[in-house]
Design a protein that fits this description.
The complex is a heterodimer of chains A (273) and B (328).
Chain A: E1 8-9, E2 15-16, E3 19-30, E4 33-44, E5 48-52, H1 59-66, E6 74-79, E7 82-83, H2 89-94, E8 97-99, H3 112-118, H4 128-133, H5 139-156, H6 172-185, E9 190-194, H7 202-219, E10 222-226, H8 230-236, E11 239-244, E12 247-252, H9 254-258, H10 261-266
Parallel strand pairs in A: 5-10, 5-11, 8-9, 9-10
Antiparallel strand pairs in A: 1-2, 3-4, 3-6, 6-7, 11-12
Helix pairs in contact in A: 3-6
Chain B: H1 3-36, H2 43-59, H3 65-72, H4 85-106, H5 116-138, H6 155-165, H7 173-195, H8 197-207, H9 209-214, H10 219-245, H11 254-265, H12 270-290, H13 292-295, H14 303-314
Helix pairs in contact in B: 1-7, 1-8, 1-10, 1-11, 1-12, 2-4, 2-5, 2-10, 4-10, 7-8, 7-10, 8-10, 11-12, 11-14
Classes of the chains: A alpha/beta (273), B mainly alpha (328).
């Protein structure tokens, strides 16, 4: 790990900024089961942060804590230098934390365009009655502006040709991409991706990898991702947290983590080099 | 034109108008079902409650008069003022919004992520509660509702058709008003749900709660919004039906007429509620006209349900319902 106070330079020469979010001693219990025990780590501006670990290690729970879907039993979440009070998931989303889900949570009955437009909801300022006025209150103009932003994302993720298709009809790989598009539409300050490449074939995985890197490159989006595919994680991420049985057993750049004995024992035990 | 055909035309016109009245009730069901997947059993009672409240406010009745009198020994019945119809409608709309907030706080909030059947049972409970609550609040006697809507036969239409066709059409003024109001209501609701920010949020919540939360939609706000709109639609239905046949308990039974409409039009389609209503309205009038005399009449009581059953067999999602696509 390089300088912890003012960020660091990545291997490929990107400048990573200060701490955006810090998780302090997070513990999460469901009744008698401890899903996460006493985990601390930070997320820095502009980096791609991976959380890896075997099944049931508590990765998704961690993501759910960050996005407010779970309330930690103990510990604090600090966001931009202030302690985040307990808040509901939609409030967290309004603060600029967008996410995707492991099992894809899209609005199946709505078109791709409408799905992505919902990502803009937090940015739309016109209220209920202004919407009723439409042309007179500027609601129509606001809609157009957001539509333009969404079209940019659609171009970026190369899904122009399915714009009007109901999401329910799309194949799995494209659904994942639409979900990413919806999260991006919110112009998030932190983007949370829960296994963005799960269940994809090699080609789809490569596409998704490229998109995640491009997004980070183009918009400087801070990204936290959970992934099983070790190759993908090592290629993509700047720093990696390794979890096992709810504990943190490693934290650092991919190369450092790869050589950590605890990590090898717990997760990379298959590597015989 | 032969008289028989003209008469059939008149029957059709009346059927269309009656259908609109059914559609008004069905609309409320569709709205709540679309936004939350709940079949709201209490929609009919909401209409009754709205109509009772409207009459109560208009007539300056003291709410809970019987209760107050029984407890305190006073004899209050009325404030002694009359509220103008428009203001009374506005106040009633506010009451319905308040009711939506209370329903969300006391019932829906505690049933997040429960099975639809549990929410359905909750609405049954709400229906019975509201029915009794309405009685306690405004009294159980039959009331007449008059918000100044035109009543009786439209004479202009009658004389015009009489001159042109030699046969005067009998169409109820109230039905014409109901048609105009329903068309406006449906247009507004469709525009709202398809194009507005809140409409999009509403469709999102209907589709997936988790995903809706993740894009920053407050479920509670959307639920209050939906129930407020459903309350407003119930108010409109209550005004139309109340003006037609008085405000009494049986008003809540119009919900039963909305069921076949929903099966025909599809539970999730606002235009479907209208088209379904029209088909049922026209269908039952024409069936009564042509087949009624052959089989002893009174077919209007059951025709709608049989039609709905036939539809259920061949097109379970209704005419405009979302086709159920299941990827395996």
């Amino acid at each position: 790990m390089n300088d912890m106070t003012d960020g660091y330079m990545t291997a490929d020469g990107r400048k990573i900024g200060g701490v955006v979010m810090e998780l302090k001693n997070i513990t999460l219990k469901f009744g008698g089961v401890t899903a996460i025990s006493d985990i601390s780590f930070d997320i820095r501006e502009g980096e791609i942060r991976a959380i890896i670990g075997p099944n049931g290690a508590g990765k998704s729970s961690m993501l759910n804590v960050i996005s407010g879907f779970y309330i930690p039993t103990e510990g604090e979440v600090w966001y931009r230098g202030a302690r985040r009070p307990q808040m509901r998931p939609y409030k967290v989303a309004q603060m600029g934390i967008a996410r995707t889900f492991q099992n894809i949570a899209l609005f199946d009955g709505m078109s791709v365009l409408d799905n992505i437009m919902t990502g803009r909801l937090t940015k739309m300022k016109k209220g209920l009655f202004a919407q009723a006025g439409w042309w007179f209150t500027g609601a129509a103009k606001e809609e157009d502006e957001h539509r333009a932003k969404v079209e940019k994302i659609i171009d970026f993720l190369e899904i122009q040709n399915i714009r009007k298709t109901p999401v329910g009809r799309l194949p799995y790989g494209l659904k994942k991409r639409v979900e990413l598009a919806r999260a991006l539409a919110a112009e998030p300050s932190i983007l949370l991706l829960d296994e963005p490449m799960a269940g994809m074939n090699v080609e789809e995985k490569e596409d998704m990898c490229r998109f995640i890197l491009d997004v980070n490159d183009e918009f400087g989006t801070t990204t936290v991702l959970i992934e099983h595919d070790m190759g993908v994680v090592m290629d993509l991420s700047d720093r990696v947290v390794v979890m096992d049985y709810g504990r943190k057993i490693g934290d650092g750049p991919p190369d450092e983590v790869r050589n950590n004995q605890d990590v090898i024992d717990a997760y990379l035990g298959v590597a015989h080099d | 034109m032969p008289d028989q055909l003209l008469f059939a035309l008149e029957v059709t016109a009346n059927g269309l108008m009656a259908g609109v009245m059914y559609s008004l009730v069905a609309l409320g069901f569709v709205l709540i079902f679309k936004a939350s997947g709940i079949f709201n059993y209490s929609q009919g009672v909401l209409a009754l409650f709205a109509a009772l409240t409207l009459v109560g406010i208009q007539e300056g009745q003291v709410p809970f008069a019987h209760l107050i009198n029984a407890v305190t020994g006073l004899h209050v019945t009325e404030f002694g003022w009359k509220v103008p119809a428009l203001l009374a409608i506005l106040l009633t709309a506010l009451v319905m919004v308040g009711l939506a907030i209370i329903i969300e706080k006391l019932v829906l909030k505690h049933l997040v992520n429960q099975e639809p059947i549990i929410l359905f049972m909750a609405t049954i409970g709400m229906a019975y509660f509201l029915e009794g609550f309405g009685d306690v609040m405004w009294g159980a006697d039959i009331k007449t509702l008059d918000v100044g809507l035109p009543q009786g036969i439209n004479e202009t239409l009658e004389s015009v058709t009489d001159k042109a066709l030699g046969y005067g059409f009998f169409v109820d003024n109230l039905d014409i008003v109901a048609t105009v109001v329903a068309v406006m209501l449906v247009t507004a609701l469709t525009l709202f749900s398809q194009y507005s920010k809140q409409g999009r949020a509403l469709r999102a919540v209907a589709d997936d709660h988790q995903a809706a939360l993740s894009v920053g939609i407050s479920l509670r706000f959307i639920w209050v919004l939906v129930w407020s709109i459903a309350g407003f639609v119930a108010l409109v239905a209550g005004i139309m039906w109340g003006s037609k046949s008085g405000v009494q308990f049986s008003l809540s039974l119009i919900a039963l007429k909305a069921l076949p409409v929903l099966m025909l039009g599809g539970f999730t389609s606002i235009p479907g509620a209208i088209v379904g209503g029209l088909i049922i309205g026209v269908g039952e009038k024409l069936f009564e006209f042509f087949a009624g005399p052959l089989i002893g009449g009174a077919t209007e009581n059951w025709f709608a349900y049989v039609l709905a059953l036939v539809f259920l067999v061949f097109r379970p999602q209704g005419l405009f319902g979302e086709k159920i696509i299941e990827r395996v």
